[in-house]
Amino acid sequence: MNKSSKIFVAGHRGLVGSAIVKNLKAKGYHNLLLRSRSELNLLDSLSVSNFFEVEKPEYVFLAAAKVGGIIANNIYRADFIYENLMIQNNIIHQSYRNNVKKLMFLGSTCIYPKECPQPMKEEYLLTDILEYTNEPYAIAKIAGIKMCESYNLQYGTNFISVMPTNLYGPNDNFDLEKSHVLPALVRKILLGKALEASDWDFIKNDLKKLPIENENGSSSENHILGVLEKYGVSLKNDEVTVEIWGSGNPRREFLWSEDMADACVFLMNKRDFKDTYDNSDKEVRNTHINIGTGKDISIKELALLIKEHVGFNGTFHFNEDKPDGTMVKLTDVSKLNNMGWKHSIEISEGIKALCSHYLETA
Ligand SMILES: NC(=O)C1=CN([C@@H]2O[C@H](COP(=O)(O)OP(=O)(O)OC[C@H]3O[C@@H](n4cnc5c(N)ncnc54)[C@H](OP(=O)(O)O)[C@@H]3O)[C@@H](O)[C@H]2O)C=CC1
Ligand SMILES: C[C@H]1O[C@H](OP(=O)(O)OP(=O)(O)OC[C@H]2O[C@@H](n3cnc4c(=O)[nH]c(N)nc43)[C@H](O)[C@@H]2O)[C@@H](O)[C@@H](O)C1=O
């Protein structure tokens, strides 16, 4: 990319898209093409086709997707497979038709088998069955990788795929039912701390963002306690308890979204499809690359780190009626590290930054 290249960032208001825009602008890329969902619905093939024909982007970051945590993936299974396939099919196909110079497709490490050898290398793709809770989403992401590979092989395009680990950062989704674990735990533990301190102003302000069933318009403390309990923050015998889904034993690897964006821009400039396989390969597979830190932590350890940072004194209830999902998914990031990129924000620093971000934007 050069500084005046026309770059389409699809999903620019999201966690990763907004970080990619920030990274590109900071590096002097000034010809960015951005469209909100109301301006361009990426599910609508005709609108996407018209957009590409008129705008002719040169580079595309495909960071738009239907995204959510373990329960959202498990419940809205049809939406996750349909919307992700549609968005990526529309953008990848139009990028081919309109001679986009390079496209980056963002997948996810949930493409790897449920019981994958650890750490997960790129070549472990499609070697065993997937985790059930996010199988429809993972299948869409695998289709995205294969679509990029297939267009490259048949039509000579230059579409690359990156597989990020679990991400978090500014513009994260803090919805307590649909979000990923890190923003959910930050919010629940901050609410738990506020409840300990009887900080009703903080709690009432925070709850304005929840879809509360408030039939009688009541804002009494009892009503609020009922709402908090529904979302996993409860007060009993003067002790506050925060609910953690599952056993607390699953391990996850977390990457700060601005590091993720930096890796994307780095790879967009450094990696072409032709670099991803050997010319002697009869079968071209596993051309994607992992993005992560190569370090993981259990959900229980994560909750304890947040608890310590926030100064919450209550207890955790591990609700094993909620799914654990994959028990361990640590990425092998040696390919990326060997290319010269490494993450900069460790989890303890990232937790502090995410808490500050939440409090500033709450
Ligand atoms: N968050 C994570 O932990 C991980 C994310 N990823 C992948 O990274 C990518 C970015 O995810 P993330 O930033 O977290 O997701 P977000 O949900 O934060 O952002 C997704 C963006 O896509 C947009 N979008 C979704 N559907 C449409 C549509 N029909 N038309 C137009 N825009 C649409 C959203 O618009 P709007 O703002 O209007 O909703 C939003 O801006 C995705 O491919 C995701 O699968 C991979 C691994 C982990
Ligand atoms: C990025 C990745 O994200 C999803 O997979 P996931 O890693 O399982 O997602 P998660 O962040 O929601 O959960 C991680 C772990 O944490 C536990 N957990 C505890 N307490 C809360 C909690 O309060 N909320 C959530 N969401 N999880 C909780 C939860 O039970 C699980 O054991 C994919 O569907 C797919 O979208 C994908 O690719």
From TrEMBL:
Task: Identify the pathway.
Answer: Nucleotide-sugar biosynthesis; GDP-L-fucose biosynthesis via de novo pathway; GDP-L-fucose from GDP-alpha-D-mannose: step 2/2
What EC number(s) is this enzyme filed under? 1.1.1.271
EC class: oxidoreductase
**Which Pfam family is an annotated match for this chain, by its short name?**
Epimerase
Q: What GO biological process terms does the UniProt entry carry, in alphabetical order?
A: 'de novo' GDP-L-fucose biosynthetic process
Q: Which residues cross the membrane?
A: none
Site-annotated residues for Important for catalytic activity = 108, 110
CDD domains linked: GDP_FS_SDR_e (cd05239)
Q: In what residue span(s) does the NAD-dependent epimerase/dehydratase domain sit?
A: 7-195, 235-276
List positions binding NADP(+): 11-17, 106-109, 141, 164-167, 180
Q: Which InterPro entries match?
A: Epimerase_deHydtase, GDP_fucose/colitose_synth, NAD(P)-bd_dom_sf
Please verify whether the record's keywords include DNA-binding: no
Task: Describe the function of this protein.
Answer: Catalyzes the two-step NADP-dependent conversion of GDP-4-dehydro-6-deoxy-D-mannose to GDP-fucose, involving an epimerase and a reductase reaction.
Write the protein's name. GDP-L-fucose synthase
| Annotated organism of origin | Flagellimonas aquimarina
